[in-house]
Amino acid sequence: MVFSFRQLEYFVAAGESGSVTRAAAGSHSSQPTVSAAIAKLERALGVQLFVRHHAQGLSLTPEGRRFLAEAKTLLRHASEVERFATTLSDEVAGTLDLACLVTLAPLVTPSLVREFRATHPRVSVELVESHQQGLLDRLRGGLSSVALTYDLQLPGEITFEPLADLPPHALVAADHRLALRKRVSLEELAREPHILLDLPTSREYFMSLFAEAGVEPNIAIRSEHPETIRTLVANGFGYAIVNARPRSDTALDGGRVVTLPLRGPVRPMRLGLASLRGIRETRTVTAFKEHCRSAITPSGVPGMLSPEE
Amino acid sequence: MVFSFRQLEYFVAAGESGSVTRAAAGSHSSQPTVSAAIAKLERALGVQLFVRHHAQGLSLTPEGRRFLAEAKTLLRHASEVERFATTLSDEVAGTLDLACLVTLAPLVTPSLVREFRATHPRVSVELVESHQQGLLDRLRGGLSSVALTYDLQLPGEITFEPLADLPPHALVAADHRLALRKRVSLEELAREPHILLDLPTSREYFMSLFAEAGVEPNIAIRSEHPETIRTLVANGFGYAIVNARPRSDTALDGGRVVTLPLRGPVRPMRLGLASLRGIRETRTVTAFKEHCRSAITPSGVPGMLSPEE
DNA sequence: GCACTGCATCGTCAAATACGCTGCAAGCCG
DNA sequence: CGGCTTGCAGCGTATTTGACGATGCAGTGC
Fold first, then answer.
1. Are residues B50 and B59 in contact, defined by beta-carbon separation less than 8 angstroms?
2. Residue A112 belongs to what H/E stretch?
3. In chain A, whose CA is at the least distance from the CA of B277?
C-alpha cells in the first residue's frame, strides 16, 4: 500500500476543514506533521490533492475532491473492520464454535444450547459432534473453541474443567434375565455377549474397566454409533457399557432398555469442558462455560437420568 | 486505527499459508518481522488470531478465520482506492473540469468537447461558464482545472497559454447605415448608441479601446448576456463591440447582424488556456490542452468566423 | 536420541514520524 | 502604505516504529 491510514486521516481532516492547522488541532497532531503527511501522500499517489493559498488555507483540487470521497469510505470501512474485530472477543455475540462428544451430544446439547441462546440471543452456535480424537484435533486446529467431553486421553496442551462424574452402567434389554437386578458385576457380564461402542479412546476406557476387574469381555458386535448399540441391546443381542444414560428407556425401534449400576470399584467418566491451553478466550466462550457450570452439576446433567435414578 | 495495512497484509499472508515463515517469504520480509507484526495486531485487537503449533506452523482460530475474511476485503478495497487515485492523474479518463468564458462557450466548446471526447471516450467533461473573475476564482478554488478565456486581468499565479488573437469588431444590424462599410473607426461609432456587455474585466477592456482612441462611447444599454446584446443590436438599438464572431449572422429573434473590423490600432483579445501555476496537471488536462492547441489556431477558431471572413 | 522444523525473543540499526522553530508570502487593517 | 497577522513549507532533532540476523526453545519425526 502506497499510503497509510494516518495519511488518509490527516488528508480527510485537512480536506474537510480546508486548513492544515485546523486538521492538526483536530487530529491531536502538529501542523508540520500534517503538512508533511499530505505532501508525502501526494507524492506517493502522483496526484495533486490541494491548492495552497498563502495565509488562507487550502482548497481541494478536482482530483482531491474525488479522492476525498474514496478515502472517507475506506476509513469508514476500516473502522467497521476494527469494530468487528473487537466485537469478536469483547462481546457475547457472533458464533460459538462448540464441539461435543457424539455420545453426549444428543442428550446434553439441546437444552444446553437452547438455554444459552435464551440468555444470549446475539450468539449463534455452530455445533460439531465427533469422537474424542476428533474433538482434540478440532481444538488444536482452531476449528472449535471449546468441547464438551470426558477427561479421556487429554494431552498437556488441553485444559479440562470437570463438571460431573458419570459412573458406568450396564445397558440391557428390559426383558433381559439381569434386567431386574439392583446392580451387576463385571464378572457376571463377562459371560454375556458384549456390544462394544468402538470409538477411539472410549473403546480403551471400556476395556480398562474389565482389565481392572481381571476379566475379559466377550465382544460379540462392534459399532461406532451409539444409537445402533442401544437398538442392538434392546433386541437382546447382548449388553453394553454406557456412562451417559438418556431419560428415555426406548431404543429407536421402540424396544425397551434398562441401565444397571456396576458392582465394585469402577472409575467413572468425568464430564467437563475441554479447551486449548494458552488461548485468550472470547467473552462468548467465557459466557458459555459459565452457563455450563450452572447447568451441568454432579447432581444432574441435562437430558440424562440423575445419579440415583 | 489500531492496525496498519502492513499488519493486515502479514496477517492475511500467514493466515492463508498457515505459516509465518512462508508468509515472510511471500511478503519479501523476514520471519521475525511477520511474527512481531501479528503479535502486535493480536494485542491491538484483543483477539487471538492463531493457534501456534510447535514445529508445524499456525492454525487460525475461529475468530481469526472470521477476521481474515474482513481483512481481505478491506485490503482489496484499499488497493481499489489506490488504483483509483493513480488513475486520477495517470490516465486520460475520469472527469475534465473545464471552465470557459461565457461569451466564448457557445461558440468554441461544442465542437472542441465533441472532438476531444471522440479521441478520449473515457473522459466526461464538466463545463462551467462564467465571466473572467468567476473563472479565476474557480481556478484558484480548485473548482476547475483549466479555463478557456482571454488574457485579461491575469494575476501572477495564473499561467496563460495564448492560442489565437481575436481583434475587436463592431457589431451592427444588417440594415444599419454602417452595415455595408468595409471597416469603421471608433470615432464614428462613438456617436452611435453603444450596447455594452457589462461583465467584470470585459467591460474594462471595451472601455480601454475607446480611451486609447481618445473618445467616449455613448452607452445606451447594458446587459450581462451576450445573446441579449446581439438581439438588441439586430433590432437597431445601436452597436456593440465583440471579439468572438459566431458563424451565424442571425440573432435569437431572427434579426440579422454584421461585424465590421475597427480602423486603427486596436489591441486584440488573446484567446487561450488559463490554469493555476504550480499545479501538477493530470494527464486528462494535458491531453485537453494538446487538443486545444491543434483545434484553436491563429487562422481559425471552432465556431467562429476566420480572420479574413 | 538426535537432527530438524518453525515460532518467539533479543539486540541492533535504519527509516518513518513526531515536534518546535523559523521562513516566507499574501491578506488584513489602521 | 507599512506593520501585523495568518497559515503552509522547510529545517534540525528526538522518538518511535519497523526491519533484520542471531539465537532460544519446544515439539516433531526418523
1. yes
2. helix A105-119
3. A51
Find all residues with CB under 8 Å of B39, minimum gap 6, and list them: none
> Which nucleotide lies closest to B10 by the C1' atom and the CA atom?
D18
Amino acid identity at B163: L
Phi/psi at A191 (nearest 5 deg)? -80, -20
Tell me the CA–C1' distance in angstroms for A24 and C20.
Answer: 14
Q: Which residues contact B63 (CB under 8 A, 6 or more apart)?
A: A88, A89, A282, B47, B48, B49
Q: How far is B29 from chain A (nearest CA, A)?
A: 15
Give the nucleotide nearest to B36 (CA→C1'): C8
Contact B1 A78 (CB under 8 A): yes
Question: How many residues are present in chain A?
Answer: 309
Q: Which of B3, B59, B281 sits opposite A142 (nearest CB)?
A: B59
Ramachandran angles phi, psi of B19, nearest 5°: -160, 130
> Which segments of chain B have a pLDDT < 70?
none
Amino acid B162: pLDDT? 96
pLDDT band of A194, cuts 50, 70, 90: very high
CB < 7 A contacts with chain D (nucleic strand): A 18-21, 31-32, 35-36, 38-39, 50, 52-58, 156-157; B 4, 6-7, 24, 28-33, 36-37, 40, 54-56
Residue nearest to nucleotide C4 (CA to C1'): B55
Sign of CA dihedral A271, A275, A280, A283: negative
Tell the residue number behind the cell numbers 481541494, with chain if given: A60
Binning chain B into helix, strand and coil, the percentages to the nearest 5 are 40, 25, 35
Q: Name the maximum alpha-carbon separation found in chain B.
A: 104
Question: What is chain B's alpha carbon radius of gyration, rounded to the nearest angstrom?
Answer: 31
- Cell numbers standing for residue B24: 515472510
A contacts of B284 (beta carbons < 8 Å): none
CA B107 to CA A84: how far, in whole Å? Answer: 56
Tell me the pairing of strands A240-242 and A169-173. Answer: antiparallel
* Minimum CA–C1' distance nucleotide for A28: C18
Spell out the residues 6+ positions from residue B161 whose beta carbon is closer than 8 angstroms to its own: B272, B273, B274, B289
Distance CA A26, CA B118 (A): 46
Residues found in chain B:
309
Residues of A in contact with B48 (CB under 8 A): 89, 279-281
Question: What tens digit of pLDDT does each residue of B30-57 get?
Answer: 999 999 999 999 999 999 999 999 888 8
Nearest CB neighbour to A84, from listed B4, B61, B70: B70
Over residues A8-18, the pLDDT tens digits come to 999 999 999 99
pLDDT tens for each residue of A253-268: 999 999 999 998 899 9
What residues are paired with A129 via a beta bridge? Answer: A100
Q: What is the pTM of this model?
A: 0.89
The pLDDT, as a whole number, for residue A307 is 78
For chain A positions 33-52, those within 8 Å of chain B (CB to CB) are: 45-48, 50-51
Give the three cell numbers for residue B196. 455594452
In the three-class reduction of DSSP (H, G, I as helix; E, B as strand; rest coil), residue B100 is classed as strand
